[in-house]
Amino acid sequence: MKIRRMKHLKQYLSFYKINFGFREPYLILVDGTFCQAALESKIQIKEQMPKYFGGEIQLCTTTCVIHELSLLEKELGNARIIAQRFQRRHCAHRHNPVSATECLLSLVQEKNWQHYFLATQDPELTSQVKRLPCVPLLYIIKNTPVLDRPSIASKRAAIRAQAAQLIPRQEKLHLREMKAKLFPKPNRLRQPRPCKGPAGPNPLSCLKKKKKHRGLDIHTHVGVAAQRATVAQAAKKKMKKKKKKIIIDGH
């Protein structure tokens, strides 16, 4: 039973987190009947409730609840002592207290935008709260706090919220077209690019070519030496002819 109860608790908490944005610390709005049931069941609310939820909680009540318990001092005096330890939430009846039922209903109406969990044992209050969406109910059953399953009103509100998020593709296209008609974008004229003239020569190609000094090979050296030897031989022959001519003329 304990495993099943904890499984249901996780499912219900996930439902309220995903669909209505409930977050820690969970705000638990407590009335006098819940405090009295906790006394009779010997439940330490401040110690056991965080363990039950598996996270941080904030126990709170209202001035109207305290005022109603003070009027029933003989029957619910100890419950008043417990409720006085909780944080008091602001209500519109501070100077003119109303019944606890009326006060608590005023806080959870308008889609329960403060995300209260309502802890009560009052059947009249419970029946009225179940008609409202997004209000988790908490009871004490068999000496154990129990989170009630989401009401039909809460499930319908969750379905409506999910349907509102899933907009068909055609509607998205229609909305886009409507926005384009209502808020047309200004036409941006492209500026013509300036015409470029004839391209000049590449500056690198205008550089003077460096002369390549090539060393003379062996054949070149041999040819030069042969020419020099031939010239020398021709000069010697010429000199010999001149000497012979001089000798002949002398005789």
From TrEMBL:
Keywords associated with the record: Nucleus, Ribosome biogenesis, rRNA processing
Places the protein is found: Nucleus, Nucleolus
Name of protein: rRNA-processing protein UTP23 homolog
Annotated GO CC locations: small-subunit processome
Stretches assigned to the UTP23 sensor motif region domain: 196-211
Record family assignment: Belongs to the UTP23/FCF1 family. UTP23 subfamily.
Pfam families named among the record's database cross-references: Fcf1, UTP23_sensor
Keyword rRNA processing on entry: yes
Described purpose of this protein according to its UniProt entry: Involved in rRNA-processing and ribosome biogenesis.
This protein's record includes keyword Nucleus: yes
CDD domains: PIN_Fcf1-Utp23-H (cd09866)
A single GO BP: rRNA processing
InterPro entries named in the record: Fcf1/UTP23, PIN-like_dom_sf, UTP23_sensor
Location (main, coarse): nucleus
